[in-house]
Design goal:
The structure holds two protein chains of two kinds. Chain A is of the alpha/beta class. Helices cover 30% and strands 22% of the residues of chain A. Chain A contains eleven helices and 14 strands. Chain B folds into two domains: 241 residues, Rossmann fold; 68 residues, no CATH class. The chains are: A alpha/beta, B alpha/beta. The interface between A and B is large, with 47 and 48 residues.
């Protein structure tokens, strides 16, 4: 497997910025919050060229932070992100334009005081992909590709609907001619009928432009639809990784299994009300994660070893990996 | 039917804005019997939330109910004086909102807020009120309820806050609860817990519910019947599984087939062309006609609701039931 994008042992901590006084107070045993949130913890991943990797998990699991680390928007506390062998960041600065991002909320990610055409052309002009004189045609071309009428370039974001704004955001990302696209919940704020339009656009563009993609979503059905492989995150760690059809058919981690069980399914073939399984309890605070396996307080398979030791990532099959002491028990239960 | 608790007929709520009249709700009719859960589905701007607000008389100027009737246990609510309406809100009919951070007062403890809701309709000692509050918190699945009562909203997680809001809505065992997307802001694992509990509680207490949602999958696992809204009107209604299996209205059919779960992974999804129309400038006929592949000249006139076998649809060219087509 040739790695195009490789994420090597990346962690990111968010801690309080302590003043000198607070540091001294903490040393002397004063009541100062010194704990840091480990938003992303020792994550290693590779993504092949042209592949779409789905990143799924509940809020606070670190999927957006990981997306930002890959995009070079945030610097990792430790570890490296390499694109085609070259680092995405050097000395805390992003050094490539080959990774671009589409964010969740197109109301927040577009400058309300800038014409959408200028929003799309700003980056390409700054990096010499086009010139000020040619910008109009350059933008019009990208507008057409994402299904927007090029006569709209002089409009402002408020003149567009949510779906159209998301198209502008996609045009802005693609106009930089990236190799890698990070999509951070790009359809979460859209209505179902519009969501389908944007997903179709995404499928078409990634194929036509041979884009490598990291697609972040909490919606399992969207992930299943767009991804080749999926990584499931829980409290900053990847708990399961594998081809999307295999993971969805028979998950190796109890959390993945429970997550699938919680998703309401469209019931069309039963007149009876369905029963769905629920995961007990809630995601623990990342400030004080539980000992051993982070999932053990909610896990039906947990034993003493899960309380004591954090599970290593193990190979399930050729393309699949899982971080669970009891994955064999779970896999056996499917037979 | 003696079990009928809520009967809504031809409800219309319009907003008289400077830009024109916005017909947010325009002809909504449905009945609810004791313990029944109805899913009210639609996309943003379809009027589902305004419908919910209209039922409780919570529509503010420039909006008002211009037509129709809302009967709760036989009492007409739309013409009721404010004071009488207030006496019923929270006791006979209550509402759960989408965002529990916005609906709970951050400055008051959960106990204070719950006791306020109790005191509004009942005379109970502080002790008895607290006991009742604790009992309901336990019922909605909050562990060590007595201790958590002394907490403030910020000390609760999103899921727990929504449980508190649900407990407040249930305090007086109302006949009807309007739930406006109460699980939309929550994670799937928490959403599943709450959906499961709501279904049990409604059955146990005999509370009827209108569950407003944009998510067909959520309502399909919860509600026994559905009403689909588009541009202020109910375009299709009927028993949940039946309606989802054989949608009659092209909009419902399009909505169902545009779900990623309904398509083969990687292949293009079915998409409804265009976007929802502005409520300020609705087309004169069927509001879905400009996006509809079945539309003809006949659709220049707005269709009325056609009823057959417990189902209703507002369309001149309904999708034919799959089984009929084969036979």
């Amino acid at each position: 497997m040739s790695a195009f994008l490789s994420i090597d042992n990346v962690s990111r901590l968010f801690g309080p910025n302590l003043s000198t006084g607070e540091k001294i107070a903490a040393k002397l045993g004063g009541k100062v919050e010194t704990r840091a949130v480990r938003a992303v913890s020792e994550v290693s991943l590779t993504v092949r060229k042209g592949e779409t990797l789905g990143l799924v998990g509940e809020s606070g699991c670190g999927k957006s932070t990981l997306g930002r680390l890959i995009a070079g928007i945030l610097a990792p506390t430790s570890g490296t992100v390499l694109l085609d062998g070259a680092p995405v960041m050097l000395d805390g600065r992003k050094v490539t334009t080959r990774v671009q991002t589409v964010f969740q909320d197109p109301f927040a990610s577009l400058d309300p005081r800038m014409k959408v055409g200028d929003t799309v052309s700003e980056g390409p002009i700054a990096y010499g992909l086009t010139t000020k004189a040619d910008a109009k045609g350059y933008v019009a071309n990208w507008f057409e590709r994402v299904g927007l009428d090029p006569v709209w370039v002089d409009r402002y974001p408020h003149q567009f609907s949510g779906g159209q704004r998301q198209r502008v955001a996609i045009a802005r990302a693609l106009a930089m001619q990236p190799d890698v696209l990070i999509c951070d919940e790009p359809v979460a704020s859209l209505d179902v009928s519009i969501q389908a339009q944007i997903i179709n656009l995404f499928l078409e563009l990634t194929q036509d432009l041979n884009l490598t993609c990291v697609f972040i979503s909490h919606d399992l059905s969207v992930i299943q639809h767009v991804s080749d492989r999926v990584a499931v995150m829980y409290l900053g760690r990847i708990v399961e990784l594998g081809p999307v059809n295999q993971v969805f058919a028979a998950s190796a981690h109890p959390y993945t299994d429970a997550l699938f069980g919680s998703v309401p399914k469209l019931v069309i073939d039963a007149d009876e009300l369905v029963h769905f399984d629920t995961i007990e309890g809630e995601v623990p605070s990342p400030l004080s994660p539980p000992s051993g396996c982070y999932y053990h307080p909610r896990c039906p398979l947990a034993t003493d070893i899960c309380v004591a030791t954090q599970p290593e990532t193990q190979t399930v099959s050729d393309l699949r990996a899982v971080a669970c002491h009891h994955f064999k028990t779970l896999m056996a239960s499917y037979q | 039917m003696s079990d009928l608790v809520l009967s809504v007929k031809d409800l219309a709520t319009h907003f008289f804005t400077r830009a024109g009249v916005v017909k947010a709700v325009d002809g909504v009719s449905f009945d609810l019997v004791k313990g029944e859960i109805m899913g009210l589905v639609g996309e943003s701007g379809s009027g589902k939330t305004v419908t919910g607000f209209s039922l409780l008389g919570l529509v503010d100027a420039p909006g008002r109910i211009v037509n129709g009737s809302v009967k709760l246990n036989g009492t007409e609510l739309t013409t009721l004086p404010d004071a009488d309406l207030r006496a019923r809100r929270g006791r006979e009919i209550s509402m759960i909102f989408q965002d529990p951070i916005a609906t709970l007062n951050p400055m008051l403890t959960i106990s204070q807020q719950m006791r306020m809701a109790i005191d509004a309709h009942e005379r109970l000692s502080k002790r008895a009120a607290e006991a009742q509050a604790a009992k309901l918190l336990t019922q909605v699945g909050i562990p060590s309820a007595a201790a958590r009562l002394r907490g403030y909203p910020h000390e609760f997680s999103g899921g727990m806050r929504q449980r508190v809001a649900i407990a407040i809505a249930l305090l007086h065992r109302p006949a009807v609860i309007i739930a406006d997307e109460p699980t939309t802001a929550l994670d799937v694992s928490i959403q599943a817990q709450i959906l499961f509990q709501m279904r049990e509680l409604a059955a146990e207490m005999g509370t009827a519910m209108v569950w407003i949602s944009h998510d067909l999958a959520v309502v399909s696992s919860l509600a026994s019947k559905l009403a689909v809204m588009y541009a202020g009107r109910i375009v299709e209604q009927g028993p949940t599984a039946n309606l989802l299996r054989d949608p009659r209205h092209p909009y419902t059919a399009g909505l169902i087939s545009s779900l990623p779960a309904m398509a083969k992974p990687g292949l293009p999804l079915h998409q409804i062309p265009g976007a929802t129309p502005s409520l300020l400038s609705l087309p004169p006929g069927c509001p879905f006609a400009p996006r509809c592949e079945r539309a003809t000249k006949a659709c220049d006139v707005a269709p009325d609701m056609t009823f057959a076998n417990n189902r209703g649809w507002r369309c001149f060219h309904p999708v034919v039931e799959a089984k009929e087509a084969i036979a």
